[in-house]
Specification:
This protein is of the alpha/beta class. It is built from 13 helices and 24 strands.
Length: 541
């Protein structure tokens, strides 16, 4: 829990808490220094700006709209307001003029129960830093919407000698989210206000340090490998990411080397493939490709699904297909997979509908923590679309088949899926499906020629293969060859720190890749329009 006092600009008119905190006292406007998350830009959709605000009789209480938003944004169990503070939605809480200071507490995410990071496995012991003799090292996955920090160690002796173990994991929300929920917004923020880049860098470094020390549990940290989004990696290194956002989309010289991150241990920024194909997919896909249990697959694709979806295709065939190294691609899916912008969307927390099944023309719902349904998280949204298709309530073109001209379908009291929600999901699905199709086309194979598809990342790992197939995310590909893989980026970062052979494999994959930009591929428009369609089960209600 982070507590801070924000001094507000004099002469400020009545405005929301989010707006008040985003204006520095000297009158310069920009994203707030307090770090209040506002991925949706304050539209009251994402629910991530919930903070504890010190009670003040001059500040109006919660209205109906704010209360409804907070009901969809429950905090983790055990997180309660300090004495004298109340939970408020910063984008809906009104701060009257004349108040010159407010005090807030920002809840920090607790450690997740269990681990979403798969077992890295046996390493050859050629450590990137230190000797690995009982020291802790950090594997960090720096994503656009979350930061996953793992403390790992390599067993020095015994029957598990050389085995890399993840001993603890910490997952927190994006510490730079107040500057935008996607990389383009963050790049724009760098040029919109002097000092924004430094503020994002400071927030990211502070979060990484705090999570690393917490995960290490007091043991010495020998170093960290940071894999992730290229823009976020630039911010960690204190480098301007703007060249990534403008043609010809060049990469700053910070990847594949130790960067000065101002932390008490060395931080190595993992190599990457291209400006929009980060080290997270490179290390994650390399991890999948080098697992002994996957050796029997000739063709393997890894899809890391989220706001920005990344793909990697390894082809081990000795003949056939197109020659060359692994193939990489990316697609901007937008925030729908994170349930941001969805009318009843909410982060994954107690009460979030994470599973929906078609049942007798209706729906069976599963919620996180078994709490009453409060909203839809990303996996729940995907399941809901699949259930609508199975019930015959959704046509292949995305039209809802509901009586009376209703705007949506109620899944549970207070939780509905609207026509606009389906359209947003359909656009994200079209981006993924077209990238998948064009990747296979470039590789010279058909869906039948792909042996296995691994879904990685927070959303990808939570997505049911059945829902992915039912919605046509991967056209023509059967669900029995789709596998959830967990956070392969963090697992790959752990191996990168402890295994010289793995580093060589990843370096080789990055040195001669084929990068497919779907939007520049011949026939992209035709493929994209076709990819918007859902599979048609020809069922009518």
């Amino acid at each position: 829990m982070r507590r801070m006092k924000i001094r507000l600009r004099s002469g400020r008119p009545e405005c929301t808490l989010l707006r008040a905190a985003s204006e520095f006292r000297d009158g310069t406007s920009g994203p707030d220094a307090g770090g209040i998350a506002a991925a949706c830009g304050g539209r009251g959709v994402c629910g991530r700006c919930a903070v504890f605000l010190r009670d003040d009789p001059r500040i109006p209480g919660r209205g109906e709209e704010e209360a409804a938003l907070l009901r969809r944004t429950p905090l983790l169990p055990g997180v309660s307001p300090p004495a004298g503070f109340s939970l408020r939605a910063a984008c809906r809480c009104t701060i009257p003029e004349g108040i010159d200071a407010i005090e807030i507490c920002i809840p920090s995410a607790a450690a997740r129960a269990g681990s979403s990071v798969p077992d890295p496995g046996i390493s050859d012991g050629r450590m990137l830093f230190g000797d690995g003799g009982g020291e802790i090292f950090i594997a960090a996955d720096i994503g656009t919407t979350s930061l996953c920090v793992c403390a790992a160690e390599r067993e020095p002796r015994g029957e598990d000698a050389g085995k890399v173990r993840i001993i603890s994991e910490r997952v927190i929300g994006d510490p730079t989210s107040s500057f935008g929920g996607d990389v383009i917004s963050k790049i724009s923020a760098c040029g919109a206000c002097p000092g924004n880049r430094e503020r994002m860098t400071s927030a990211l470094r502070e979060a990484l340090l705090e999570a690393s020390l917490d995960a290490a549990g007091g043991r010495r940290i020998s170093g960290a490998v940071a894999a992730g989004n290229p823009v976020m990696t630039c911010l960690l290194a204190g480098t301007d990411p703007s060249p990534i956002g403008r043609y010809p989309f060049s990469l700053p010289d910070v990847f594949g080397r130790t960067v000065d991150a101002g932390l008490p241990f060395p931080v190595f920024a993992a190599p990457l493939v291209a400006p929009y194909t980060g080290s997270d997919i490179l290390l994650g896909a390399s991890y999948i490709a080098t697992r002994p249990e996957n050796a029997g697959y000739r063709t393997v694709m890894v899809a890391d699904l989220g706001t920005n979806c990344e793909f990697a295709l390894f082809d081990r065939r000795s003949a056939g297909g197109k020659s060359g190294g692994p193939l990489f691609s990316s697609a901007a899916a937008g925030p729908a997979f994170e349930a941001s912008g969805i009318s009843c969307g909410m982060p994954a927390g107690p009460g979030a509908v994470c599973g929906v099944s078609a049942a007798g023309g209706g729906f069976e719902l599963e919620t996180l923590g078994g709490a009453p349904p409060a909203g839809l998280c990303g996996s729940g949204l995907s399941d809901a679309v699949a259930a609508l298709l199975e019930n015959g309530m959704l046509a292949s073109d995305g039209t809802l088949r509901v009586s009376g001209g209703a705007d949506g379908v109620e899944l549970a009291p207070g939780v509905s899926l609207t026509r606009r929600d389906i359209r947003l999901y359909q656009l994200a699905k079209g981006a993924v499906a077209s990238a998948f199709t064009l990747c296979l086309r470039e590789a010279g194979i058909t869906p039948d020629g792909l042996d296995a598809l691994f879904l990685a990342g927070a959303f990808g790992s939570a997505l049911r293969p059945h829902s992915a197939a039912a919605a046509g995310l991967f056209p023509g590909f059967p669900e029995d060859r789709i596998f959830s893989a967990g956070n392969t980026s963090a697992a790959g970062a752990a191996l990168y720190a402890a295994d010289g052979s793995f580093r060589e494999f990843a370096a080789s994959a990055a040195s001669c890749p084929r990068v497919v930009d779907p939007s520049l591929s011949p026939g992209f428009e035709t493929v994209f329009m076709a990819s918007l369609a859902f599979p048609d089960n020809n069922r009518q209600i």
